[in-house]
Amino acid sequence: MSNRPGPEELPSGLRHRLSHLLGHGHPHSWNPVNVMDAPTEAIRTTKVSLLVLGITALLQAAAAISSGSVALISDSLHNLGDALTAIPLWVAFSIGKRQPTRSYTYGYHRFEDFAGVIIVIAVAVSAGLIVWESVGRLFDPRLVENIPWVIAAGLIGVLGNELVARYRILVGRRIGSAALVTDGQHARTDALTSLAVVAAGVGAVFGAAWVDPIAGLMVALVILRLLGRSTRIIARRLLDGVEPELVDETESIIADVAGVLTVGDLKLRWHGHQLHVSASIGVDANLTVAAGHETAHEVEHALHHAFTFPVITVVHVGPAGVTTAHDATAHHRT
Predict the structure, then answer these.
(1) C-alpha 36: how far from chain center
(2) Could you tell me which residues are beta bridge partners of residue 313?
(3) H runs (alpha helix) in the chain
(4) How far does CA 122 lie from the centroid of its chain?
(5) What string of DSSP letters covers 3-58?
(6) Domain count of the fold of the chain
(7) Which of 166, 287, 299, 326 has the greatest number of C-beta atoms within 10 Å?
């Protein structure tokens, strides 16, 4: 008979490492490539977005020049601006790959949030230009030319933007990048506004010159609505705000770890696409230091498995119900 200990007799940390070797599975949402190499995946996404939206904008611009449609000019201008927003994201993700230094001990992932600010500014500028052109055309209406090209260009805008939107939002949510998700929502709104170009072409068929500038103004209104939502998201990131549902989920995950009796002083904040979590856990007062330390690592491990984006965890371990040590520093926290 073998004297080898059974799985239930092994320390939990060793048991977990063996389970990985023997084919331990992760939830379907878990993707270690995304977690370990999120900046590289984000850079790939921005390159693809730049290419697709660049081609879309050039095709629309060619049709806009030949037709004189202000709605199409507005849409192509905005698509070009949306393509160019991939550049600050590209720069931000590249800088974020740098290793932390003695001056920037958290690393450089916060550059993603600065890129988000640049995107919001770009959206605001493009909306202002579109309003200017559309109002001018209202006072000087004229029918567009090459109507079939206008309608075709509008449909190209819908397709190109929707493809980019799906790709950006999918990757952004998977790696936890608010800037990438915001840019994806921006592209999705552009897909809807490209339908206004189609409407302008249909209006021209029936001799309604006013449809074109009105469609341009509709594009601007939708963009302004997106601008407000994106500004709130980026501002919350810059102020270290997180979604309350994320706090509840994180607290529940920590509380479910074996050996954790209490959870307190839970704090979350985003650092680019990384979620930083700090928490205090109460454990059995009779545990050894080694056992308490292992419980802290089980908490960290549970959070890594729960989310597809990188999670940086700091866990303070203390004896549940024993507050003597905390009482000594309580006056510094009030």
Answers:
(1) 16
(2) 277
(3) 12-21, 32-36, 38-67, 70-84, 86-96, 111-139, 147-175, 178-205, 211-238, 244-255, 289-306, 324-327, 330-333
(4) 18
(5) -PPPGGGS-HHHHHHHHHHTT----TT--HHHHHTHHHHHHHHHHHHHHHHHHHHH
(6) 2
(7) 299
Please return the burial class of 60, using the count of CB atoms within 10 Å of its CB with bins 0-12, 13-18 and 19+.
Answer: buried
User: Contact at 8 Å (CB) between 284 and 320?
Assistant: yes
Whether this prediction's pTM lies above 0.85 is answered by no
Q: How far is CA 270 from CA 119, 138, 171, 234, in A?
A: 18, 45, 17, 11
Write the DSSP string, 90-123: HHHHHHHTSPP-SS-TT-STTHHHHHHHHHHHHH
Q: How far apart, in Å, are the Cα atoms of 161 and each of 16, 199, 213, 227?
A: 44, 17, 22, 17
91/172 same-domain check: yes
Mean predicted confidence (pLDDT) in 213-226: 77
Question: What is the pLDDT confidence band of residue 17, given thresholds at 50, 70 and 90?
Answer: very low
Q: Which domain holds residue 311?
A: 243-333
User: 174, 200 in Cβ contact below 8 A?
Assistant: no
Backbone φ and ψ for 58, nearest 5 degrees, come out as -65, -40
CATH number, domain at 45?
Answer: 1.20.1510.10
> Per-residue pLDDT tens for 116-145?
888 788 778 777 877 877 777 777 766 666
Can you give the pLDDT at residue 268? 94
The more confident residue out of 13 and 289 is 289
Residue 314 has φ and ψ, to the nearest 5°, of -125, 120
Together in a domain, 129 and 164? yes
Mean pLDDT of 158-184: 82
